[in-house]
Design brief:
By secondary structure, the chain is an alpha/beta fold. It is built from 18 helices and 18 strands. The protein has three domains: about 80 residues, Ubiquitin-like (UB roll), CATH 3.10.20; about 260 residues, NAD(P)-binding Rossmann-like Domain (Rossmann fold, 3-Layer(aba) Sandwich), CATH 3.40.50; about 100 residues, Oxidized Rhodanese, domain 1, CATH 3.40.250.10. The chain has an eight-stranded mixed sheet, sandwiched between helices. A five-stranded mixed sheet has the order 2-1-5-3-4, with helices on one face. The protein has a five-stranded parallel sheet with strand order 14-18-17-15-16. Helix 6 runs parallel beside helix 7 and helix 6 crosses helix 12.
Length: about 500
């Protein structure tokens, strides 16, 4: 009998760009088997090499997670099956104290005060609240603006990056004139302009296992606006250990998700949902796959809404629930996230009792064999390169001296229209497993992408196939444009 399977945005390119697929089967196992037979490229994203459904993939029948029932969960005609991979009533108020409002603040927040659910008491809790934002990017921007405007008394921001032109399409707290400025400084200026009474605490550092507990301990709740798995697991684990609510959000292309993780309030944590991260490179980042700018505002404001509800203790928070938004269909769907009694972090017998090495946990090394992990730093030169990396300066020298090599561009086809390095062979990374034999083994292969992350993974794959003369261009085409050929646009 046919059922409808919803394909998430991140995996649609492996299913002929379809949002839904009609598949025949009487159980989840049969449906997924037939789905991956129809669309073979989906299989490695759903199943591990030993045939098990991957831990970072959730499958829902209607809105029920099938994890407890297993792959043999029966389905019937009319059921909707959703694949949800990892992409990074009244309650007691989180804020117990209240801070008296001034006459000026009573006027400023008058539209809140006449809401019975907020009132003077709720607004005084908002003023007393201390909220920590992890990041000031796509999600952090609307979060910072709306929480400041709402009257949150203290907002801390953890951010070590500087404003780049490519940020401006979605990170609305930063303006054109801020390019090159530290993001915490840029964000703080806008926030103080909205509310001069705000106590803004900048943390211009990278959150790590060494400092996370100290950063978070003095705040009432944390809002995760990060875009990578190591930081997402780090923030989750630290929040669980310190009993702080963690308001989660993630975005990719035309899709976004939001939830609240708070085991101490009776809900699950992020590890209950996804016990382990996907292998490096399997889930593309926004830098690789893109993101519609307005999605950041939609999901960021949902996170801000959840934070305010937690602060004042009103409404039904997204604990134990995932809210998923698809901009192309203009649809919201809700899925249940059950608390895992065997969760290694918040379960009955936890085995994770201290913060760990999250780069190692997520399978991301530090310049080990196989090239740089993640996206290489654009201004990286010869120093600090991995053994399989070369700088753009070395690539230019190889071209100038007419060395015999093949330059391979593994970016996506849409990116080829933005910029190219003349003479490169275009072979998108998703097509590499099927087309790698087109590349010669007797010549040196120099592989590049946008910033060095995907090309490093391509180098690893090619070495596994027996290619011995292969190098990754650290910093990718953006580094080439910045340091070698300024006529090539950066993106």
């Amino acid at each position: 009998m046919p059922v409808i399977v919803t394909i998430p945005t991140a995996l649609r390119r492996f299913a002929n760009n379809q949002a839904t697929v009609e598949v025949v089967g009487g159980t989840i196992s049969e449906v997924l088997s037939n789905l991956t037979t129809q669309h073979t490229e989906l299989r490695p994203h759903l199943y591990s090499s030993d045939g098990r459904l991957r831990n970072f993939v959730r499958v829902y029948v209607n809105d029920e997670d099938i994890r407890l029932q297993g792959d043999n969960t029966p389905v019937k005609q009319g059921d909707e099956i959703a694949i949800v991979p990892s992409i990074a009533g009244g309650i007691d108020p989180v804020i117990k104290s209240r801070t008296k409002l001034t006459n000026e603040e009573i006027k400023r927040y008058s539209r809140h005060l006449i809401l019975p659910e907020v009132g003077v008491e709720g607004q005084e809790r908002i003023k007393a609240a201390k909220v920590l934002l992890i990041g000031s990017g796509g999600l952090g921007s609307p979060l910072a603006l709306y929480l400041t405007a709402a009257g949150v008394g203290t907002i801390g921001m953890v951010e070590f990056d500087t404003v780049d032109f490519s940020n401006l399409q979605r990170q609305i707290i930063h303006f054109t004139g801020d390019v090159g400025k530290p993001k915490v400084k840029s964000a703080g200026e806008k926030m103080k302009a909205i509310n001069p009474n705000l106590n803004f605490i900048p943390h211009e550092i990278k959150i790590t296992s060494e400092n996370a507990l100290d950063l978070i301990k003095d705040y009432d709740l944390v809002i995760d606006g990060t875009d990578n798995f190591p930081t997402r697991y780090l923030v989750n684990d630290a929040c669980v250990m310190l009993k702080k609510p963690n308001v989660y959000g993630s975005i990719f292309r035309f899709e976004g998700m939001a939830s609240v993780f708070a085991p101490h309030l009776g809900g699950p944590c992020y590890r209950c949902w996804y016990p382990e991260p996907p292998p490096p490179g399997l889930v593309p980042s926004c830098a690789e796959g893109g993101v519609l700018g307005v999605i950041c505002g939609i999901i960021g404001n949902i996170q801000a809404n959840e934070a305010i509800k937690l602060i004042i203790g009103k409404g039904k928070p997204l604990m134990g629930r995932l809210l998923r938004f698809d901009a192309m269909d203009m649809s919201f769907r809700e899925y249940k996230i059950p608390k895992d009694p065997n969760c290694p972090l918040c379960g009955k017998t936890p085995t994770i009792t201290k913060l760990i090495d999250y780069l190692e946990f997520c399978g991301i090394g530090r310049g080990e064999a196989g090239g740089s992990s993640g996206d290489s730093i654009v201004d990286q030169k010869e120093e600090g390169l991995g053994p399989d990396d070369i700088s753009v300066e070395t690539l230019k020298k190889m071209r100038d001296t007419k060395q015999d090599f093949v330059l391979v561009d593994v970016r996506n086809p849409d990116e080829f229209e933005i910029s190219v390095i003349e003479g490169s062979v275009k072979l998108p990374l998703p097509e590499l497993p099927q087309r790698f034999r087109e590349l010669p083994k007797d010549k040196e292969l120099i592989v590049h992408c946008k910033m060095g992350g995907r090309s490093a993974r391509a180098v690893n794959f090619l070495k596994q196939q027996g290619y011995t003369k292969v190098k990754n261009v650290a910093g990718g085409i953006n580094a080439w444009a910045q340091r070698i050929d300024p006529n090539i646009p950066q993106y």
